[in-house]
Design goal:
By secondary structure, the protein is an alpha/beta fold. Helix content is 33%, strand content 18%. It contains eleven helices and 15 strands. The strands form three sheets. The protein has an eight-stranded mixed beta sheet. It has a five-stranded parallel beta sheet with strand order 3-2-4-5-6, sandwiched between helices. Helix 4 crosses helix 5. The longest helix has 18 residues. The protein is elongated, with a radius of gyration of 21 Å. It starts with a strand and ends with a strand.
């Protein structure tokens, strides 16, 4: 069971944030993860070439392309601040951006091949849990750290990863519990679920179902659909026949087509309560939808409220940001990788992995790369508190505590991405 704490707005204001930037190649100036923690490198372990090199495998194309700008923005802001503070191991951190595409293509695998050929030390990505599943073996076999800012599938808690996989996004069991609690609290004693059929969609739907049932509601119909389908009429018809009070939509970009079908069949948001998740909460995907279609729709996004100063720094990196989802998690991923390399005094994947848990908890609290790096250089053990939350990795590379924001769409089919209606914080393990 996950213990959920309802946090007041002010109490979470300094915990999370989000951002973005333009994609493209740039340079800025195996033990099971689920069953055993990564071990610190031995004294005789290779120290690397002295230059920390980070690659990204993030969505420039595909069903999560709208998440690309904020995630690239978070990465680029972190690198800018790291290099302005003197870099890592006395040298600027270098970066190469690549596309993750989605599960309909082989783009992610090709991107990983390119980055490994460049001998990167760590790879940030992918956004999609299914895409990360398809590349994790290739990355970890090469001895490279894989650090996802957005993977939420529960599978990664126990996946075979040589102790080299980490994430700043919490497992879906937390988001699923928050969403399930929300749906029931809104008075929906009957629920329909439309979920994309993959590890992310089906896993999150499972947790929402468990939580809703524990709360006394009944899932009267659940449809796990093919996200590549050209038509969703039959899927929506099954939900219509069950006539639930609340409808949970779990998917990616294809949700815009599902919404069109819901409206067509009379299951509009003014008659039924709709709920969405991090994969489809977007201010761009529904831009062409008739005004009012999304009014009142609620959804959940991992992450606490971004401090205003962080938002301003992000907008300097990319003034045209329309989405903020997972920017803070991307920023924290890069910062933690850099701090782990500093703590290890080495830039190899094994050395970085061996210090990531250590720099995330248990020492002197600090925020930002410069403050934390200065403490490390003075011989002080640190506890990095990120923009996305305290992080505090457990032994398998998951954040042990996380915050989920509840957002609500307005009549113009957008939501305030900078500030949730409510934030709920919970311990991942209970």
């Amino acid at each position: 069971m996950i213990r959920i704490l309802r946090a007041p707005l002010a109490a979470t204001a300094a915990v999370v944030a989000l951002a973005a930037c333009s994609p493209g190649d740039t340079t800025a100036g195996t033990v099971p993860s689920g069953s055993a923690p990564a071990q610190p490198p031995s004294a005789t372990a290779p120290q690397g070439d002295g230059t920390l090199s980070i690659g990204t495998v993030l969505p420039q194309t595909g069903s999560l392309a709208y998440l690309g700008p904020p995630m690239f923005g978070g990465v680029d802001l972190a690198l800018k601040e790291i290099n302005e503070a003197g870099g890592v191991l006395g040298k600027p951190v270098t970066k190469s951006d690549t596309d993750s595409g989605d599960t309909t293509t082989n783009i992610a695998s090709q991107s990983v091949d390119k980055l490994l050929a460049q001998k990167v030390d760590a790879i940030v990505g992918a956004a999609s849990s299914s895409v990360s599943e398809s590349i994790i073996d290739k990355i970890t076999r090469a001895g490279v750290v894989q650090f996802s800012p957005a993977n939420t599938s529960d599978k990664f808690t126990t996946i075979e990863d040589a102790g080299l996989y980490f994430r700043t996004a919490p497992p879906d069991k937390l988001q699923g519990r928050v969403l399930g609690d929300l749906v029931v609290a809104d008075g929906n004693d009957t629920i329909g679920i439309l979920a994309m059929q993959d590890s992310y969609g089906s896993g999150l739907a499972d947790q929402v179902t468990r939580t809703a049932q524990e709360g006394g509601a009944t899932v009267v119909e659940r449809v796990d659909y093919d996200p590549k389908a050209a038509d969703f009429s039959a899927d929506v018809s099954k939900i219509k026949a069950a006539n639930p009070k609340g409808i949970v939509l779990i998917g990616f970009e294809e949700t815009s087509k599902v919404v069109q079908e819901l409206v067509k069949q009379g299951l509009t948001s003014d008659k039924y309560k709709w709920y969405m998740v991090d994969g489809n909460m977007s201010n761009t995907n529904f831009a062409k939808t008739p005004k009012g279609t999304m009014a009142g729709v609620k959804g959940t996004l991992p992450g606490a409220e971004a401090p205003e100063a962080f938002q301003k720094r992000l907008l300097k990196v990319n003034p045209e940001l329309a989405e903020y989802t997972y920017a803070a998690e991307s920023y924290d991923a890069v910062t933690l990788i850099a701090l782990a390399a500093e703590a290890a005094k080495a830039d190899t994947g094994a050395a970085i992995a061996g210090k990531l848990v250590e720099v995330s908890k248990g020492g002197t609290k600090c925020t930002g790369f410069k403050e934390c790096a200065d403490l490390l250089k003075a011989g002080t053990d640190i506890d990095y508190d990120g923009v996305s939350g305290p992080v505090d990795f457990n032994d398998v590379g998951d954040p042990s505590v996380a915050t989920i924001g509840v957002y609500q769409y307005r009549a113009d089919n957008t939501f305030d991405a900078a500030k949730a209606v409510e934030y709920r914080r919970g311990n991942i393990d209970g």
